[in-house]
């Protein structure tokens, strides 16, 4: 009897234990920024659940996730998330073939869904009166977010900045190198491909083993669609930004494929040299993504070309193991010093990435209203920083900061699943940049926070190179070309260009590893043979479609 | 000596005469027919009705529009399929891997069944059987993960071979196209061996033990008994399974090749199914994938009837 009472008592305190946070100013009114009468729909009390498909692998948020509970409380909206398992192209194909869609879809294959008629046009739900925040958010970019047929299908998730913004951490493409290597040789300037590999070689000679594992100098992931690690470097090394399979001349705006030109040869020749010196291990070309991540997580890999988000899991694992010095810093290298590197780009509006509403959703208007309501500063602070007092503190000047414990929570995956918005927040349109009170949108960009959250070796590194943020190691980001980035241009269903792209991809994956794994004196003749393989591919079709896309963007944008 | 036994065994396989189907017969077997009707309906609904979707192969199919609104292109997709220089290679891969799997599968399953049949110690026999058919229940995703670990540069195969000084440096098995067929064959055998022996063991247990005793009297040793009694005894089973397998020869499959194939080995690993996936579904060209499917079905039907006919001529059990 006593036990039952105790259990009951504990449950009661657990239930009623939600922190008393003053959220009365949220949701039902429009915050401090806007006065309007769009709260009518937002106040709709009838609960509704949306099914959402997220085209990326992730873990389910916990049932009583703090953020989701708040949203349910204020808007009566809950979500059922389905995350991607396996290959996105396949899942997309299957979904389209079956014709059954959840209410809301997020996928990198937006164009496929648009072509299949899966998405519903959204502009009828958005207007200055009905959704003031959304309207204000996208108004400068209306032309960009419309699809070819003039409709808006997707709400872009990133790329719209307010006020200043600083890019602090870097998760884009770069040649990464272990921080320990830089430290060992006293933080040298590494600007060229040769210098990069020389550094790696020197470190490998000194330390053939790390923590009992043989040291691996360089990794080049060649798996499936993630093989841009193998295919993209020549473009960057020649001073071009990430345009996918082409390089685009900034003056003439003409795109051309680069994998079979002299831009690519020196890079693969260098890799061939590196392999024959033992810096690259042959099985880097046959690993799948999981094996790649596992290798990176051992801390024995000195360098790779990759995009930061792709190996974030390995980086997190190393941090959890306490091996911060084995994580990597990005370097912007080129073939020689005369070429200016172009790795860091200004965040372009991430069109075609974000929430789209399917034609099977029963109540699209309510979801749009929800997104609109969440696009206010107060909600953005909750979604990005958390609950004041619990996840961050405010100092006398009104600046946000975090305590050590709060920072540790942010690195804890399990805690994040229970207390942060996860992929839901990831895909929402955001008020990036700086809030009107001077705080940065993202804790990572808040200068004081960023600095305080840095570990010792990071501070040492930043000081040695005289920069404030990791991203500054890559130089300044130039203004984007109007039509940038070309990799977003859709290729259409089953078109000659799509076939050509698939063939280019296969040819590269098939022959480049062979070239690299061969002996050095056979490389040049092997390269000629390799170029022959491209003769049967309709590269013309691919290039002309991309060029058409570029011309359209130049006109419309 | 052996011939008496063989004759007896052969007598069991006299061809049945062709009966005329009479109403009286149907009424006599009406319970059987009633039981089979649900299955018949199931097959019609799920295997035959959807065939109307083959129309997709003659169009430039784009999902989202009704079938009647699509653009008809006649045989364009088939031309794309057959005239593509990759197609011959893909066909070769499919046939090669199927044939290897077939031969390896049959011989190993029969041999293991023969050997297991000889064992009298029931516990040992049962345990060997159980252990051998466990991998069948693994999905290929897991099995492929195991295989690629085993074949990795630090994997057990390389370690053993280096210890035995057969090779000096680890061999990257999964990177060489020419090893791929062998790897697929061996992995498939490892996975399906135990399962396949079950049928043969069951067939073997149906053989009349009197035949064995007669052979013993005639002075036959173990191997002679196997050759003259057991093998002929399970011949109908073997023939039927063989016909079925030949009919599925273009089904070399998708899973193994998809999971174990790497960029470097694609020339050897790509099967018709994988090709239809990469150039059909993945880039949104569903018509091409359908055309490949039609091709496979037609060839399979021809092969099944052909194999069945062969069996008829050789005086064996037939399927149809």
Characterise the protein shown here.
The complex is a heterodimer of chains A (557) and B (320). With 557 residues, chain A is an alpha/beta fold. Helix content of chain A is 40%, strand content 11%. Chain A contains 24 helices and 17 strands. In chain A, the strands form six sheets. Chain A has a five-stranded mixed β-sheet. A four-stranded mixed β-sheet of chain A has the order 9-12-6-13. In chain A, helix 13 (289-297) runs parallel beside helix 14. Chain A is globular. Chain B is mainly α and 320 residues long. Chain B is built from 16 helices and no strands. The A-B interface holds A 89-90, 93, 96-97, 99, 112, 115-118, 222-223, 227, 281-283, 285-286, 288, 291, 491-494, 498-499, 501-502, 506, 508-510, 513-514, 517, 536 and B 60, 62-65, 85, 148, 152-153, 172, 174-175, 262-264, 266-267, 277-279, 281-288.
Strand content of chain A: 5-15%
Structural class label of chain B = mainly alpha
Largest interface: A-B, 37 and 28 residues
How many beta-strand elements of chain B?
Answer: 0
* Rg from Cα of chain A: 25 Å
For the record, give the distance between the C-alpha atoms at the N and C termini of chain A, rounded to a whole number: 72 Å
Q: How far is the first residue's CA from the last residue's CA of chain B? A: 35 Å
Order of helices and strands of chain B: HHHHHHHHHHHHHHHH
Helix content of chain A: 25-40%
Number of helices of chain A: 24
Spans where pLDDT lies below 50 across 5 or more residues of chain A: 11-25, 27-42
Looking at the chains present, what oligomeric state does this protein adopt?
A: heterodimer
